[in-house]
Amino acid sequence: MSPSETPAPTADATPETAIPEKRDFIRQIVREDLASGKHAAIRTRFPPEPNGYLHIGHAKAICLDFGIAAEFGGRCNLRFDDTNPAKEDPEFVAAIQDDVRWLGFDWASLRHASDYFGVYYLAAQKLIRDGKAFVCDLSADEVRAYRGSLTEPGRNSPYRERSVEENLDLFARMRAGEFADGARTLRAKIDMASGNINLRDPALYRIKHVEHQNTGNEWPIYPMYDFAHALGDSIEGITHSLCTLEFEDHRPLYDWCVDNVDLAGNPELLAPLEKHGLPKEAAKPRQIEFSRLNINYTVMSKRKLTQLVAENLVEGWDDPRMYTLQGLRRRGYTPAALRLLVDRVGISKQNSVIDFSVLEGCLREDLDASAPRRMAVIEPLKFVLTNLPEGHEESLTFSNHPKDESQGERQVPFSRELWIEREDFAEVPPKGWKRLVPGGEVRLRGAGIARVDEVVKNEAGEIVELRGWLDPESRPAMEGANRKVKGTIHWVSARHAVAAEIRLYDRLFSVEKPDDESEGKTYRDYLNPESKKTVQGWIEPAAAQAAPEQSFQFERTGYFVADRRDHTVDKPVFNRSVTLRDTWAAG
Ligand code: ATP
Ligand code: MG
């Protein structure tokens, strides 16, 4: 490459390249652990439960788990926490993998908590033999009554002092499927008086006669989250187990499970991994909590997102108004924009709510830099340039991006009859109006200066057409091409334009806190009735040629993406990803 050549920006050139090295508290811990030699290399994992689609909050965890591993030369696993088969589905498993890859990450190893069921079972037997776990016959209600409260200690279960032999026998019979769901649990024997309720003899296993997507009917018992999660991390040699703040109170139980099972010191417990071809290594992980991503105007729990779909309040999981990654993707959000959001928000232990405009700002920033420009008319009004001959036709050269020459140029057809935006004409202009008025002039972007001479109305008095004159001296390359006029508007040639379905999306909720359930309301009461409007617009031919998921800035209108499901070259469908400016700003 000669010195005058600069490398072309890659397709993935993102604004985040400008962000300095990240120095949040988790990365500081990782740096110190590597510097002190505590770890030669780090390992992280992203552990979703496959009981729904990932949402934008998960993007934060993904960027952190995978991002840190990548930055520090470590490895990050994707682990499906599939310990609750009743709610889990292979559909979610596939979508989650798709989402992680789409965000730009890949896993060192794909794991399932269900790969470890054999290990968990041996680990539970070890705890029983060590006198640290017992089979309890209390019902769920009774367990609750025995548990105590934040201010009162709990009481020991009457089954707590069962002998090791009896416990081993009962646990084996739980595993053999002899007992009904809920009849018994295996509980850790810790401390019913602990100030941390999670340590009051928590359940480690429950009976559930439910078929599992991976293990079928092999297991009528399933491990509880804290037990499975702690041991899963240990099995994978996770060094830094990153999770959200609500798990802070679970950390003592997490550590209890890791320490008391001690997989590293009892490698025989790892024997069942052989069946899955998995390495038999184990280490002591450290759990570190960070604050969740919260964004106003959204709901962000799988349960509520599931309800929105189930109750047909949106059109499926990937409805472009949904805050699932699939929805955001279909809306035209880019991986770079979401990664930028996560970087901007930062990592801390401080809970906060991010304003929706920050999310939209990240998308604008990415698309402003990357999206080619096109012209499209959303709400059309015919404008006839009467001084051009009938059948007049020409091809104008437009650059695809004002700040990025590497995006090249395209041809835009121009002719006597144009579509312009209805709102670019006013018979009686408000103060400061810069667009078309009767007798007034405006620049037709890239084509010349035009004037309106006649306003044609129908019997109802509605404007149906404008007729006017194109100044021949103002055409491109003519001497008057740079003559000053107040406004510039976009247009498309009526004869060449392609009809497009344009879906004008806006925020799904019209209030900042749709989760607010005071006054007996639910988020269903806060749905924005204007969140989707479908119109038929006209787009220039080069826009119709878009590949599904390709984004454009439609000049003066907003950023739009060719719908990844419905768009075809013959029947274009575009989704509005975000307007050019924030229309929701407090004011
Ligand atoms: P939800 O509560 O929305 O249903 P979840 O926490 O149950 O989500 P999991 O599948 O268990 O979903 O989450 C996988 C990982 O993603 C966990 O480590 C969790 O801490 C993290 N995560 C979930 N929601 C957020 C969020 N809003 N911000 C950051 N991380 C999140
Ligand atoms: Mg969960």
Which structural category do the helix and sheet elements fall into?
Answer: alpha/beta
CATH superfamily of the largest domain: HUPs
Bound molecules: adenosine-5'-triphosphate, magnesium ion
Query: Strand order, biggest sheet?
Result: 10-23-24-25-21-22-11
Helical fraction equals 10-25%
Low-confidence stretches: 1-18
Largest sheet: 7 strands, mixed
Q: Cα-atom Rg, whole angstroms?
A: 31 Å
> What is the 3D shape?
elongated
Residues in β-strands, percent: 15-25%
Number of spatially distinct domains: 4
End-to-end Cα distance, whole Å, is 52 Å
Secondary-structure arrangement, i.e. CATH architecture of the largest domain: 3-Layer(aba) Sandwich
| CATH structural class of the largest domain | Alpha Beta
